[in-house]
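Subject: Interface between my chains keeps coming out wrong

I've been trying for a while to get a sensible model of this assembly. When I model each chain on its own everything looks fine, but I need the whole thing in one frame so I can look at the contacts. Pasting all components below, labels as-is. Any help appreciated, I'm running out of ideas.
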Amino acid sequence: MAESTEVATRRWSAAALMGLLCVAGCGDSGGPDGTDTEAGSPEEDLRALLGLPDHFELPAIPDYNPLTAEKIALGRRLFYDRQLSANGTQSCADCHFQEFGFADGMKTPTGSTGTVLARNSMALANVAYNSSYTWASDNLVTLEDQIKVPLLSDNPVELGVTDGARDEVFARFEQDPEYAQLFQDAFPDDAAGVTTNKIVFALASFCRSLISGDSPYDRHVTGDKDALTEQQRLGLSLFNGERFECFHCHGGVLLTNAYHDANRTEPQLVFFNNGLYNVDGEGSYPTHDQGLYELTLNPAHRGLFRPPSLRNIAVTAPYMHDGSIATLREVVEHYVAGGRLLEDGPFAGDGRVSPLKSGLVRPFAATDEEIDAVVAFLEAMTDESFTTNSAHADPLD
Ligand code: HEC
Ligand code: HEC
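Reply #2:
Try treating it as a single job with all components included. I did that and got this:
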């Protein structure tokens, strides 16, 4: 991608992502004579553990947190447990609902102590493949680092397990015999009890297991000629065409260019300004959230956000980093117009003429039928076996 918006890598640690693939006790998968057991190669074991469809590549797993069924099980339990917040009122699942592809259906969520967050809760399908995490960050490149944010942050508070609250929260799990067993099974070689890293590693493992690859679109990709309606097939060709341009930023089987390509030595950190705001005529976004600029303070980075995956997109409304677009049809109309004109209100401005907008977002002619077709195609990304998969649901339900 020749766009200047592919931001140069900073603070990147190759070791963090390029880990060896090892499952259920690395190096342990050989038979008594050192040959592979019937369970197969480490790659096959990992595929089985994740339930990976054949048309998905293996995600990179950091070598310091090999994936195991036991960590996924502990992470799943923790993900749904409100005891993981300092005041016991909120769990990860209160902002990430399975039925909404692990988004939450709200514009922006509220943390456990009442702080309204600036950004829309993200969907979590296939996060194992992300090249970076959150809507706009070039330094959160592993799930392990990202998950510490909602867990530990004191500004804004999400779960609020801050230094002062940690001992009390950990004691809840240490005193619960069922949890003691789950921690023991997940970390059999470590006697230290409950620690931040164990919680984070288990949650990251559960998030990695959230694989979505069984939508009508996937069945189409893998050769089922009847998987998409005629209208959806038209939408797909428009999506992948040079007029609509969607595929340049939401391409590939994961429907985002911001994925970690294990064949590259550096992650693909990809961010774009898609013309949502232009409050000062110079391309600024509302000052409470200017995207990547918040971290880099580089004025050229105002409005840069990661192109999210469009998997399960029909169930993750509202859209964009601030939830400011309500429907998929309005999203497609936004692109047809080449950006968003806000005529009044505090953020008034014409995003269509923003100097910081990507050159791939520019007005083009489209009929109502074509817009409907692209929307119908986006609806073909809904993977019901993912949004109803009992392996991802609250284990206590
Ligand atoms: C109060 C609501 C809230 C809670 C609680 C919450 N999240 Fe989130 N989550 C968000 C929001 C909002 C974002 C986007 C943050 C950003 O862009 O700065 C997000 C982003 C993420 C991402 C990044 C996804 C991506 O594609 O980059 C992951 C992973 C995630 N959350 C997992 C978790 C886990 C695990 C927990 C529990 C420890 C949790 N979240 C708790 C609201 C929440
Ligand atoms: C230049 C790159 C680029 C192009 C081209 C592009 N997008 Fe996007 N898309 C983005 C970025 C970046 C975001 C997030 C912007 C934000 O939140 O501020 C986004 C967000 C979205 C969202 C909302 C996702 C969510 O989870 O809220 C949808 C839906 C979407 N785009 C669909 C499309 C469609 C359909 C097309 C083609 C008509 C398209 N995009 C073209 C970069 C692009």
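Reply #3:
Confirming on my end. The chain has two domains: 14-211, 216-384.
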